[in-house]
Amino acid sequence: MSELFGDKSSIILQSFMFGPERDVPCADCTHMLDSFDGGARYVDDRTPLYVVAKSPIARLVEWARLRGWRHLTFLSDVTTRYSADYFGDTRKFPPSMRADRMLGPGEEWDETIFNSFRNDGDIIRHHWGSEMAFAPEDPGQHHRAGDQVDALWGLLDMTPEGRGDYFPTVEGGKT
User: What is the DSSP string of 73-110?
Assistant: First the structure.
């Protein structure tokens, strides 16, 4: 992980729900990445931003090409424990979290979460994670992680109707 920092002291990693159990990535993750691909070109001035998924890098790069993402940097987590260790998948969920998601024994799934890390010389520290994705949902609400960086939810929240039960879809590579 230390190589990801370059000359910066902090990094941001977003877990992208595009694991081996999916034919296409999560529509919610996809529209969020659509919205911050443009901003990603500026984020790197301060801190590297990486999108991590449990897919081979060629699959991630091809999806990015289809979406027209030019400023996002992808990392493959096919052979590491990052996703499990930092809640980008369900492998290390405690029983209560597995029950909340109705996961049976041996059933695993990818999750979206943001994590930031700081390199303090010889020690890399986990600084922040978007744990709100794992908080119980309010009645009539759907969990959505990354609200503070998601342009779609911010724009819809400006209207009297708000988000409602709207979720974008991914069809043929388009949202």
Answer: EEEE-SSSSHHHHTTSBSTT--HHHHHHTTPPTT---B
Q: What is the pLDDT of residues 96-110, one digit of tens each?
A: 888 888 888 888 888
12/5 Cα distance (integer angstroms):
10
CA angle 81, 60, 167 (to 5 degrees): 95
Q: What are phi and psi of 22, to 5 degrees?
A: -110, 135
Confirm if 53 and 170 have CB atoms less than 8 A apart: no
CA distance 21 to 109: 8
User: Which residues 6+ apart lie within 8 Å of 145 measured at CB?
Assistant: 112, 113, 114, 130, 132, 133
Which CATH number does 2-156 carry? 3.40.30
How much of the chain is in helix, strand and coil states, percent to nearest 5?
30, 20, 50
pTM of the model: 0.86
Residue 10 sits at φ, ψ, to 5 deg, of: -130, 155
Question: What are the φ/ψ torsions at residue 111 (nearest 5 degrees)?
Answer: -135, 160
H or E, element range at 68: none
